[in-house]
Amino acid sequence: MATQTACFASSSSSSWKYDAFLSFCGVDTRKNFTDHLYTALKQKGITTFRDDEELERGKYINSELLKAIEESKYAIIVLSRNYASSKWCLIELAKIVECMKDNGLTVLPVFYHVDSSDVRNQTGTTLIEAFAKHTRNPKINKEDVQAWKAALKEVGNISGWHLYDRHESKVIQEILQRIYKELNRKFLRPVSKDLVGIESRVKEMLEFYLDEGLGGVRFVGICGMGGIGKTTLAQEIYQRISGKFEASSFISKVREETKKQGLVSLQKQLLSKILMESEINFGDVSEGINLIVNRMCNKMVLIVLDDVDDGEQLEALAGKHDWFGAGSRIIITSRNSHLLRSHEVDDVYEARGLNRNEALELFSWRAFKKNYPEENYVDLSMNFVSYANGLPLALKVLGSSLFGRKTNAWRSALDKLKVEPDIKIMNILQISFDGLLYTEKELFLDIACFFKGEKNDRIRDILESFGYYPDYNIDILIDKSLITIDNWGTLWMHDLLQEMGHEIVRHESPKEPGGRTRLWMYEDVLHVLENNTGTDFVEGIVLNTHVGKVEYLKAFSMMKNLRLLKIGNKLRLLKIGNKLRLVEIVNMQLRHHLIGGNVELPQGLIYLSNELRALEWHGYPLKSFPNNFQPNKLVELRMHFCCIEQLWKGIMILEKLKFIDLSDSQNLIETPDFNGVLNLRQLILQRCTTLSKVHESLGNLKRLIRLDLRGCECLESLPHKINLESLEVCILSGCLRLRKFPETVGNMSRLSELYLDNTAIEDLSVEHFIGLVKLDISDCKNLSKFPNVSRSLTSLKTLTLSGCSKLDELPEYLGNVGGLEELDVSGTAIRELPSSILLLKNLKFLCLHGCEELLGFPLMQQRSPNPMGILKHSLIDLDLSYCNIREIPDDFGCLSSLKQLVLDGNSFVVLPNSIIGLSELKSLSLKGCTSLRSLPKLPLGIQLINASGCTSLETFVLWPEDSLIPNLVLLNCVKLSENQGYVDMLLTILRHHLIKMYHIKNQLQNGPVFPGCEIPKWFSHQNSRASMNLQVPSDLCNKFMGIAVCVVFVFFPFPYHPFIRQDDENTLRFSVKANGILIPGTDRFKIFGKLELYQHHLYMRYLPSPFFGKDWEEALSQSHAVATGFSHQIEITFEIRNPGMKVTTCGARLVYEQDIEALIPNFIRSNQDIEDARQTKAECSSSIISITHNYDEDVNRAVPCGEGTSNDVDTPHPKRIQLPNLIERLMLCLGKWIGNLCTQGQGDSDYEEEESQ
Predict the structure, then answer these.
(1) Which residue of 134, 250, 636, 723 has the fewest CB atoms within a 10 Å radius of its CB?
(2) Is 92 a catalytic residue?
């Protein structure tokens, strides 16, 4: 007879019957080492053959033993003192060596108190005597003895374990680890088609959550919605690491098994697997807990408890850390994160869905039995992938259901999903819903039908009015993985969970929508309202009207319990790439068209439910509400673009009303009496352009937090006195006729923001607003006196006075506002700053733009030993543009904290050398400084210098070779190109910018702009148009670093705009699309100043690949290039918004790591290169553009620059224009060290360029 353990998990599918065969001498080790080893193998689940001790000695060896050797993966030979004395042992040994050579049997020798050299050489007294005895035995052939000796020598040469002075238990553990690890690794099931994306998730769990190799006991939760892959992840981790523990157990379906069998059954299952005992008896949970603690407290175990949904399950199976031995790991999967946290797990892993690539692969395995879709099924597959939204359960169910079906069946199935979701998916998802209490279920359905995508804070009052406890109930839904709240406080749920909610509501009345509690589908709402089929079951309606379509509604009369009504459209969310972007609609007519909707009530409106808590009806077509409408429970009223003239007459008691927003309601003439609305917190009446009267009761709304009347152009006055003690934000911007701010009663200490910009305010006292943080009174043309600002405004941080053209002085006491951080007096008539401004120790931003009346340089106190005061330690951003400054003093360099400096449009000739002391300076703007001739040494840390329009600029000091040159904008710096050192400067700019690519991998930075007309040859793709399409191979992302782009543009006369004014700005926009999808973030704008006619400029930019992120990868995956071998298409487009500018040439290069590596050494130029470049400059010195101001003859004529320019550019008038060929000549020099780079590294041959059509 033979005994064996339960089969090892991974060997059941292997070609052998036993994992291990034990060969030993019973006299020596049967009752000690071998028995202990066999027991350990058995507990580990390793299938082991051991001969039964009752086998009779003296007979020939049982054939079962020899067969067992042939059917084993490992042979463990315990070579003890008397091993060679046993003929049986030597027969086994010879068979083992034979199988080792023929079958690949792995031999693991254990030298049990014998020397391996004695075994190898058959030396030592015991071995010599044993073989002498066998030789003398007439029943044993001499050939057998020689075979045994050879076998013993073979085994003696194999590395094994020695037990001379070691603990047997440690050797046994080493043997177990060796066998278990190899079995687990070698016969680990191949990654299943269901395990797409598993590697990254397992790695994350092992490295950051389970902390393998560390001591202590760790409890780790895996949480997520149903079908997200929690169990799959736990199973994969269990299979990979269970061999590292003394014992392990995976308890599946805890929730389900608890209901069927009870907790005692699960406790027995756990103990049985850990202790490897089939019969474990006890009567109740408490006894089971005691057994678990007593039997496992010293064992290093791995336990997985899958699908736990109740704390009692955890208390019964894995109550505390000290139940288990050091190094143990307990993994718990659950849909309830609060359950895990309350059990004090050490960490919780939030299971995430599959990305688009992973989802498509998983779906394809199920639908096509391969990792990509069939050619005719690509678009259909993507539709199903989008529907599943990364949920593995849905992808597997849908893919399996579509296998082998034709495209017509696929389309039909997709249409069916829109009406009736898959029951298998819904049943799994609904488990979490079924575990909710009634109130929680109702809240979930409200979010699914009405509030997904809403801000949590915005709807809190509404939810409270519905009888919910939002903070608690929402937490429950989050804990149970039914909803999420993003970083912006927005409520979200998975699309399929939302679909489940919709389906639950549909089942309330499958055939008649009027019998359902919630209506949100456009067709269902129209059916009910047009046919008057509503019932008192209806509690909420959302109707998102279609743009351009008029809807004629009839009745709400039967819906007595309606608590929410929303009609109209919100600001549109557009999908860019794979993200939703909010589009702000500025045009009023367009806003009305998109937001207001088109709803008509030809029969009027007789009834609205008095149960309404939230009424949102944009574009409400009537002048008033029904006479019988008494919305005593109303909490929120939003009605943009409505035709209401007055909300109500007289006093209406609306104690629960907290929010009113009637923005853009052009018929609203006056506000109602607010005496019955004393709990109102927000009143928003933006752009109500006919509103002329505000009821005096507004001044008594003591709970009002926000008052927003911006753009109410006809509003002339507010209540004479106000006592708004809770007011925090007051916005009166654009109230063009408002001349006086109300008198305040009491202390409005909570008011933090006051906006009076662009009003007719003549005088203002803000001394009672002690909590004011921001005050904006810009563009108040009637304001001639500075507001009465006193010491009490200690909280004021931002003061904006820009555009107050009558304001000619600032008071001396301004320095008393010690907390002031931002001061903007641009466009005022002030002549000097008060000396007290130097006391503003927190001032960070100061703007004096356009203060042309200033006498001398501001901030300078001539007789002071410290002319900059304490500003030198605080000021970060200083704007002195267009201040008629003719000289900048040397002391200016002491502003050591300055980071942004704007000096545009001034008349100074040089900057002081002390500017190098501005060590923190990052940006310097000198646009339009036409008298500036040179730039001194600037701080090394500066990142941007904009010297556009510095037409007299001739020289500036170059940066050291080992520093990163800043981004330079040198528009119209024509004289600079005439300078002797321009060639060297230009070479340095180009070199530094291209090398800097390597150092800004995770940043997006602008490149240089300077006079020039030729795209460097290094840009391997070039086109004489404003766009290009690049066909690139599917392995684009291999060592791909980014895209370098370059464009040449020119300004020329345009029939409708013969010139551009000094203050005009021209915008160059460029975008990158991958397979037709815009990559978010590459759509950037570059603002240029005024350009001289016919002056060509060159602009370079680099976009590093990490900046694209997942948007790039997912966009490229749309073509399924990896699967089908198709090429990717990258489209680069340049667009100029000014009709008088034109792109003449553009270029691009896909940059690889090897490109940069090759670029750096090639930039080491020889002296001859420099001399050649200088010679080129000398030859081209007379080729700067000569510009005529007679535009009438030059209309529509632009300058082509070199042979590579577009044919679309007309030929210039030969008498007036000379070709600026400087960059073209420079490329002869540059070509020696960058022109050949296009053939190094990746090269042009990998790409095929298509001209933009």
Answers:
(1) 723
(2) yes
